Amino acid sequence: MSLRDHLPVASAPADCAREDEVLDLVVMGQWPARADADLRGHAATCAICRDVVAAAGAIVTLEEAQPVPALPDASVVWARAERRAREEAARRAAQPLHLAIGVAAASVAGLAFAWWRLGAPWLAAGWHRLTAAVESSAPRIPDVHTVTTTILPAVQPLTAALLISLLVVSIGVLVARMADR
User: Fold this and answer.
1) Which of 57, 107, 135, 149 has the smallest count of CB within 10 Å of its CB?
2) How far apart are the C-alpha atoms of 20 and 40, rounded to whole Å?
3) 76: number of CA atoms within 13 Å, CB side?
């Protein structure tokens, strides 16, 4: 939008032939210094040119009075953009890690619960049977019947808990890989 669009439309009966000259000098900030004596004399007597000088001068003064915002240096803008990109990449990279930590915590909680509910009494009983068998016949190697009656009942809950936690962790890794895509 040019300065001419801001000027009010005068209801003067005729246009002035020198109006454009006056307006150009005012817009360039050269009025009245660069105007010759004839143009200054004309502007003093012509109502249209006098209005152009007043209105355009006020608009130019208003535009010059508005402060120009200070823009930061390009290196500062670039450094901020790089920092934001690094932070966003770190957040995206940490998402699967947070998921894996959650899955690991759930697995540990599941193992602890399985140990408490299933394994602890069986392990104690199995350990007592195993130590009793070893004490009664120290030089003898346990036969298959002893192994199946003492060790297997104690190991079954731990094996089941280990397999369940392995399954949960592998599902967690699969979900993390899918979320990373």
Assistant:
1) 135
2) 13
3) 3
